[in-house]
Design brief:
Immunoglobulin-like; seven-stranded antiparallel beta sheet; binds copper (II) ion
Protein backbone atom coordinates (compact mmCIF):
# COMPACT_ATOMS: atom_id res chain seq x y z
CA UNK A 1 0.00 0.00 0.00
CA UNK A 2 1.38 3.41 -0.95
CA UNK A 3 1.29 6.33 1.43
CA UNK A 4 -1.21 8.04 -0.87
CA UNK A 5 -3.75 5.23 -0.52
CA UNK A 6 -3.25 5.20 3.29
CA UNK A 7 -4.18 8.88 3.44
CA UNK A 8 -7.24 8.25 1.25
CA UNK A 9 -8.31 5.39 3.52
CA UNK A 10 -7.90 7.51 6.67
CA UNK A 11 -9.92 10.34 5.14
CA UNK A 12 -12.71 7.98 4.09
CA UNK A 13 -13.04 6.47 7.57
CA UNK A 14 -13.06 9.93 9.18
CA UNK A 15 -15.96 10.92 6.91
CA UNK A 16 -17.83 7.74 7.79
CA UNK A 17 -17.49 8.44 11.54
CA UNK A 18 -18.45 12.08 11.16
CA UNK A 19 -21.35 11.59 8.79
CA UNK A 20 -24.10 10.45 11.23
CA UNK A 21 -23.63 13.62 13.33
CA UNK A 22 -23.86 16.08 10.43
CA UNK A 23 -27.61 15.98 9.65
CA UNK A 24 -28.67 16.53 13.28
CA UNK A 25 -26.44 19.57 13.91
CA UNK A 26 -27.28 21.09 10.52
CA UNK A 27 -31.02 20.70 11.21
CA UNK A 28 -30.75 22.90 14.32
CA UNK A 29 -29.82 25.85 12.13
CA UNK A 30 -32.06 25.09 9.15
CA UNK A 31 -35.03 27.45 8.66
CA UNK A 32 -38.21 25.43 8.95
CA UNK A 33 -40.59 27.96 7.42
CA UNK A 34 -40.39 30.40 4.57
CA UNK A 35 -42.37 33.01 2.67
CA UNK A 36 -41.76 33.17 -1.09
CA UNK A 37 -42.25 36.86 -1.75
CA UNK A 38 -44.12 37.98 -4.87
CA UNK A 39 -44.93 41.29 -6.53
CA UNK A 40 -48.53 42.22 -7.44
CA UNK A 41 -48.11 40.46 -10.83
CA UNK A 42 -47.30 37.23 -8.97
CA UNK A 43 -43.63 37.15 -9.94
CA UNK A 44 -41.35 35.73 -7.25
CA UNK A 45 -38.92 38.47 -6.23
CA UNK A 46 -37.54 37.31 -2.90
CA UNK A 47 -37.72 35.12 0.15
CA UNK A 48 -38.08 35.34 3.91
CA UNK A 49 -37.05 32.48 6.18
CA UNK A 50 -38.07 31.91 9.79
CA UNK A 51 -36.07 29.95 12.35
CA UNK A 52 -37.83 29.14 15.62
CA UNK A 53 -35.55 29.60 18.61
CA UNK A 54 -35.91 26.99 21.37
CA UNK A 55 -35.98 29.60 24.13
CA UNK A 56 -38.70 31.55 22.31
CA UNK A 57 -38.95 33.92 19.39
CA UNK A 58 -38.04 33.79 15.73
CA UNK A 59 -34.95 34.67 13.70
CA UNK A 60 -36.16 36.31 10.49
CA UNK A 61 -34.08 36.63 7.31
CA UNK A 62 -35.31 38.56 4.31
CA UNK A 63 -33.80 38.98 0.86
CA UNK A 64 -35.91 40.62 -1.83
CA UNK A 65 -35.71 42.83 -4.94
CA UNK A 66 -37.87 45.17 -6.98
CA UNK A 67 -38.49 47.82 -4.31
CA UNK A 68 -38.10 51.57 -4.67
CA UNK A 69 -34.89 52.78 -2.93
CA UNK A 70 -35.25 53.63 0.78
CA UNK A 71 -37.33 52.44 3.73
CA UNK A 72 -40.46 50.32 3.53
CA UNK A 73 -42.89 49.36 6.27
CA UNK A 74 -43.03 45.59 6.81
CA UNK A 75 -45.50 43.58 8.88
CA UNK A 76 -46.98 40.18 9.54
CA UNK A 77 -50.59 40.29 8.36
CA UNK A 78 -53.18 37.97 9.85
CA UNK A 79 -54.26 35.90 6.84
CA UNK A 80 -51.99 33.64 4.80
CA UNK A 81 -53.14 34.82 1.38
CA UNK A 82 -51.47 37.12 -1.13
CA UNK A 83 -54.53 37.38 -3.36
CA UNK A 84 -55.93 40.77 -4.34
CA UNK A 85 -59.18 41.89 -2.71
CA UNK A 86 -61.84 43.36 -4.99
CA UNK A 87 -64.52 45.55 -3.36
CA UNK A 88 -68.16 45.97 -4.45
CA UNK A 89 -67.22 48.86 -6.77
CA UNK A 90 -64.68 46.64 -8.55
CA UNK A 91 -61.65 48.38 -7.02
CA UNK A 92 -58.79 45.91 -6.50
CA UNK A 93 -56.36 46.14 -3.57
CA UNK A 94 -53.14 44.19 -4.22
CA UNK A 95 -52.61 41.57 -1.48
CA UNK A 96 -55.78 42.78 0.25
CA UNK A 97 -56.72 39.20 1.18
CA UNK A 98 -53.81 39.18 3.68
CA UNK A 99 -56.07 41.21 5.98
CA UNK A 100 -55.01 43.45 8.84
CA UNK A 101 -51.82 43.50 10.90
CA UNK A 102 -51.37 40.41 13.07
CA UNK A 103 -52.52 41.53 16.53
CA UNK A 104 -52.89 38.45 18.77
CA UNK A 105 -53.08 40.59 21.95
CA UNK A 106 -55.90 42.71 20.45
CA UNK A 107 -54.05 45.97 21.12
CA UNK A 108 -55.64 47.74 18.10
CA UNK A 109 -52.49 49.88 17.94
CA UNK A 110 -49.73 50.18 15.40
CA UNK A 111 -46.51 50.88 17.29
CA UNK A 112 -43.50 49.42 15.49
CA UNK A 113 -41.18 46.56 16.40
CA UNK A 114 -40.61 47.51 20.06
CA UNK A 115 -43.87 49.30 20.90
CA UNK A 116 -46.98 48.11 22.76
CA UNK A 117 -48.93 47.44 19.58
CA UNK A 118 -49.48 44.71 16.97
CA UNK A 119 -47.02 41.83 17.49
CA UNK A 120 -46.79 41.73 13.69
CA UNK A 121 -45.20 45.19 13.44
CA UNK A 122 -41.70 44.56 12.07
CA UNK A 123 -38.73 46.91 11.48
CA UNK A 124 -38.64 48.98 8.29
CA UNK A 125 -36.88 47.23 5.41
CA UNK A 126 -34.30 49.37 3.60
CA UNK A 127 -33.78 48.92 -0.15
CA UNK A 128 -30.62 49.96 -1.98
CA UNK A 129 -30.58 52.25 -5.02
CA UNK A 130 -31.15 49.20 -7.20
CA UNK A 131 -34.14 48.07 -5.13
CA UNK A 132 -32.49 45.16 -3.32
CA UNK A 133 -33.19 44.71 0.39
CA UNK A 134 -31.64 42.22 2.77
CA UNK A 135 -31.84 42.02 6.54
CA UNK A 136 -31.78 39.63 9.50
CA UNK A 137 -33.40 40.30 12.86
CA UNK A 138 -34.75 38.52 15.92
CA UNK A 139 -38.17 39.06 17.43
CA UNK A 140 -39.40 37.59 20.71
CA UNK A 141 -43.00 38.61 19.96
CA UNK A 142 -43.65 35.93 17.33
CA UNK A 143 -43.39 32.15 17.07
CA UNK A 144 -43.25 29.40 14.45
CA UNK A 145 -43.72 26.71 17.11
CA UNK A 146 -47.42 27.10 17.88
CA UNK A 147 -49.21 29.20 20.49
CA UNK A 148 -51.11 32.45 20.09
CA UNK A 149 -48.21 34.27 18.44
CA UNK A 150 -47.66 31.62 15.76
CA UNK A 151 -47.13 33.17 12.31
CA UNK A 152 -47.21 29.97 10.25
CA UNK A 153 -50.21 30.26 7.92
CA UNK A 154 -50.10 34.07 7.99
CA UNK A 155 -48.33 36.43 5.59
CA UNK A 156 -45.55 39.00 5.44
CA UNK A 157 -46.23 42.26 3.59
CA UNK A 158 -43.82 44.95 2.41
CA UNK A 159 -45.38 48.38 1.91
CA UNK A 160 -44.68 51.26 -0.48
CA UNK A 161 -43.55 53.80 2.14
CA UNK A 162 -41.61 54.11 5.38
CA UNK A 163 -43.41 53.15 8.60
CA UNK A 164 -43.27 55.80 11.37
CA UNK A 165 -44.31 53.18 13.99
CA UNK A 166 -47.41 55.08 15.17
CA UNK A 167 -51.18 55.10 14.48
CA UNK A 168 -50.97 58.53 12.82
CA UNK A 169 -51.35 58.30 9.89
CA UNK A 170 -52.94 54.86 9.80
CA UNK A 171 -50.43 51.98 9.92
CA UNK A 172 -47.55 54.40 10.28
CA UNK A 173 -48.11 55.90 6.85
CA UNK A 174 -46.66 52.82 5.19
CA UNK A 175 -49.22 53.03 2.36
CA UNK A 176 -49.97 50.42 -0.28
CA UNK A 177 -48.89 46.79 -0.32
CA UNK A 178 -46.09 46.16 -2.86
CA UNK A 179 -44.77 42.67 -2.00
CA UNK A 180 -46.25 39.69 -0.15
CA UNK A 181 -45.33 36.18 0.92
CA UNK A 182 -47.48 33.46 2.51
CA UNK A 183 -45.68 31.86 5.48
CA UNK A 184 -45.53 28.09 5.13
CA UNK A 185 -43.13 25.16 4.94
CA UNK A 186 -39.69 25.71 3.44
CA UNK A 187 -39.49 24.09 -0.03
CA UNK A 188 -37.12 21.15 -0.11
CA UNK A 189 -34.99 22.43 -3.03
CU1 LIG B 1 -48.70 45.97 6.78
Amino acid sequence: MTSKSLITLAFASALAVGAPLAPASAADRTPTYAAYIVDPAGKEVGRATFVGIDTGGVLVRIDTMGLTPGRHGMHIHETGSCLALVDTTGKSTPFGAAGAHFDPASTSHHAGPSGMGHAGDLPNLTATGSGHARTTFFTDRLSVKGGGNNIVGRSIIIHANEDNYTDEPMNGGSGGRVECGEIGPLRSS
